[in-house]
Design brief:
heterodimer, A: alpha/beta, Metallo-beta-lactamase, Chain A, 2 domains, 13 strands, disordered N terminus, B: mainly beta, 9-stranded mixed β-sheet, 6-stranded antiparallel β-sheet
């Protein structure tokens, strides 16, 4: 990736010079046939001192978003940079790297993957090198090993030619409890959690700015997805509430939001699912029936409710019927 | 049991389907020959009914219900229902054998669906006739999708069982109950990206339910059932007794548990614990 391209992919400026458009077209050409809009600049929005966030759209992975439908953050320390999640494809990872190089000359020392989902880690390949630690929950490696084939097939199908070259790269540094990462005068605390959104969720806390990077343990605007344990997630939320952060960078939603107020909508939804699915089970009911009414008052309050809510009910039902 | 294994192998020999196969009957013609030979199969004849979603929300957990559509009597009853998912890697999803003590040949369960497919319930009545109901289901990837959400937790609860019942016992009549069995029911279709090996298939292959000495239900199945197999069935208790369940899996492990009727006190050791009786091999 040349410096010319790196400069063209601007940070938070939001406007592109004609030269930038030329270079973006060049990136698209280099990566193969490009659907309209596939090569838009990665916008990195500053949210606190040395912290920049890309916000993913509330959409399915596609050629136009390069699979980067979740948020990605970078934290710039005194000596190096940490990336928190990496997007959904090599192509996105390369664009992200270009945007990052526009902000700082410091090298990336850590790519921290908050969990196994493809929109959060399939950009790893753009950063992988012997000098970069890829940090994940101790269960991330096994989870990725089991799912990689499925994710890579789905990515090729949904994202198309732009997905070429994407690899599933797992952690080189595994977190069982918590570790500290020193970026030079800036220390990040990385904490592994019990099964919640997935069985391999990590959060990152930057004490300097009191910023919590919650990964998909916090959804805003986009409907939370239960791929671990509903009850586990509610329990982990109780733990997270005690983090003395002033802001959170959620896995999906705006670049940042006030903490812990940002938890309210998600907690309301998950509690509604818990309450209603328990009612259905107690009545001897079925998954099909539960999908029809559980937490239906939440329907208008979230993006992608119709797409993802039925699976949440199914997952919650099969968890709670064992109570 | 041997017969079932043979028919599974026959079914496998038909081959692995292409992704997103179209709504056609070609696969069924081969399956039909291998499973039922040249026996006549009556379609939509009011003997058996099948409910399945046209479009599934989760291809790994597709709820289905199939049942005898007429009152069961000693003179005329459904003795076996064979569940077939045309486009699954093992199209023969299971055989469900009923008895007088079942009261009603009626099953609700959850299955994996790997490609757009017909799902069929073929009922054999006691006079040897075959009757079929079918539904088309749009779902894909249910067998090749990643295995469980929390493998550590699944291993910790392996073999646990739960029986869900509601309402007072109806003596001498069909009572509904739902059996839950904690088991990963791996399909063996997920490749481990590190070792480049496929995870071994690991699934419940038989479930037997008895009331006292009476067989109520016998199921021969495979990974076509979803993780943590769930089966709703009927049984006829004539007097207080014990509903007992024996489950075997593809590793040869046996799990057993019993529940008193009418009370719900567990007879197996431990509160809801797995109770492997003895490995078969």
């Amino acid at each position: 990736m040349s410096q010319g391209i790196a400069r063209a992919v601007t940070g938070s400026a939001g406007l592109l010079a004609p030269a930038a458009l030329f270079w973006l077209a060049a990136i698209g050409a280099a990566l193969g046939p490009s659907p309209a809009g596939a090569a838009e600049a990665v916008q990195l929005k500053p949210v606190a001192q040395g912290i920049y966030v890309y916000t993913g759209p509330h959409a399915d992975a596609s050629g136009s978003n390069l699979g980067a439908v979740g948020n990605v953050a970078i934290v710039v320390g005194g000596e190096s940079v940490a990336l928190i999640d990496s997007g959904g494809s090599l192509a996105f990872g390369l664009q992200l790297r270009a945007a990052l190089e526009e902000i700082t000359d410091l090298p990336v020392s850590h790519v921290i993957n908050t969990h196994v989902h493809p929109d959060h880690l399939l950009g790893n390949a753009a950063f992988a090198s012997p000098t970069v630690e890829i940090v994940g929950h101790r269960r991330l490696g096994p989870a990725l090993a089991a799912r990689a084939t499925f994710y890579l097939e789905a990515g090729a199908r949904n994202i198309g030619p732009e997905f070429a070259g994407t690899e599933a790269i797992g952690p080189t540094l595994e977190v069982a409890d918590s570790i500290h990462i020193n970026l030079g005068g800036r220390v990040l605390k990385v904490t592994a959690h019990a099964t919640a959104h997935t069985d391999n969720d990590l959060t990152v806390y930057d004490r300097r700015t009191r910023t919590l990077f919650a990964g998909d343990l916090v959804f805003i605007e986009r409907l939370p997805v239960v791929d671990g344990s509903l009850k586990g997630w509610l329990a982990v939320m109780d733990e997270l509430r005690a983090v003395p952060a002033v802001r959170v960078v959620p896995g999906h939603g705006p670049a940042s939001a006030r903490w812990p107020a940002a938890l309210h909508a998600q907690e309301r939804y998950l509690q509604a699912v818990l309450r209603d699915v328990r009612i259905e089970i107690a009545a001897g009911g079925t998954i099909e029936n539960a999908i029809g009414w559980v937490a239906s008052e939440e329907r208008t309050k979230w993006a992608r409710f119709a797409e993802d809510h039925p699976r949440n009910v199914t997952a919650s039902f099969t968890e709670l019927e064992w109570e | 049991m041997r017969v079932a294994v043979t028919t599974f192998l026959l079914a496998m020999a038909v081959g692995i389907p292409a992704w997103g196969a179209t709504e056609d009957e070609s696969r069924w013609r081969d399956l039909r020959d291998s499973l039922f030979g040249d026996r006549e199969i009556h379609e939509e004849s009011g003997v058996v009914s099948l409910e399945a979603p046209y479009r599934a929300h989760d291809a790994a957990v597709v709820p289905i219900t199939f049942e005898a559509a007429f009152p069961q009597s000693d003179e005329r009853y459904v003795k076996t229902i064979t569940l077939i998912v045309d486009e699954n890697p093992l199209p023969m999803a299971g055989q469900f054998h009923f008895t007088e003590a079942s009261g009603w040949a009626a099953i609700s369960t959850r299955i994996r669906v790997n490609a757009y497919t017909h799902v069929r319930a073929v009922a054999e009545t006691n006079d040897g006739e075959l009757h079929m109901a079918k539904r088309y289901v749009k779902a894909a990837g249910g067998c090749s999708a990643p295995a469980g959400k929390d493998p550590e937790a699944a291993l910790a609860s392996l073999g646990k069982m739960k029986l869900r019942r509601s309402g007072p016992v109806l003596w001498g009549e069909p009572n509904s109950a739902q059996l839950l069995v904690s088991h990963p029911n791996h399909t063996g279709m997920q490749m481990d990206q590190v070792t480049r090996h496929y995870v071994l298939a690991y699934f419940v292959d038989s479930i037997e339910v008895r009331y006292g000495d009476q067989p109520v239900l016998a199921i021969e199945s495979n990974f076509s059932l979803s993780e943590n197999p769930a089966v709703r069935f009927h049984y006829v208790p004539k007097e207080p007794g014990e509903l007992s369940v024996r489950v075997t899996d593809s590793d040869g492990d046996v799990f057993a548990r019993a529940w008193s009727v009418p009370t719900s006190v567990a007879k197996a050791p431990g509160e809801g614990e797995a109770s492997p009786v003895s490995p078969v091999q």
